[in-house]
User: What shape does this take?
Amino acid sequence: MPTQVLLIRHGETDWNATGRWQSGAPIPLNATGEAQARALARYLTVRGPRIDVIYSSPLNRALQSARIIAAALELPVHTDERLREVDLGDWQGLNRAEVMAWDGERFAAYQADWYNVRPPNGESRRELQARARAAFDDITARHPGCTIALVSHGGTLGMLIESLFGPIERPTLANTSFTVVEQAAPGAPWNLVAVALAPHLDEAPLGETW
Assistant: This one.
């Protein structure tokens, strides 16, 4: 049997709505985010693929989303620290304009060398990619032939997708959108089945590229 993974971004938070960079901050879902997660849970219960196991980032916004989905599917949630969002260090809690005003030179370098430059006291996207892929490989090896839900963050999921398929056009990974990847058998290449789906939502949610 193939192994299938749904890469799910968490629901909306107030910081998403205002463009503030959350990183590791313990920001909860707002009312919209809770509704998005409930809508996804209903979709997965009625129309989506049968989920066998759920893993989540331990950060509030992801774990809340995962628990809403898990309650509907009557499954436990397993957490993995490696599914956390990128560590933005001293930029956490700021928005783009504030970072450019306060730390413009480093931000310009960060934009110019997307994968390798670290924010002050943070981690690079390359480091994020390595830990996210390690988590993915461990989890999928643990559950061959299963359908796995991984609830995480836009930056983390984006780097994970690139680790599997190389740089691709960066779609918007909107809140509670899900990307589907599949492996025919252990050791076989992963296939990208669908990117950034959100059939459970009536209106397009906020989103961001990675």
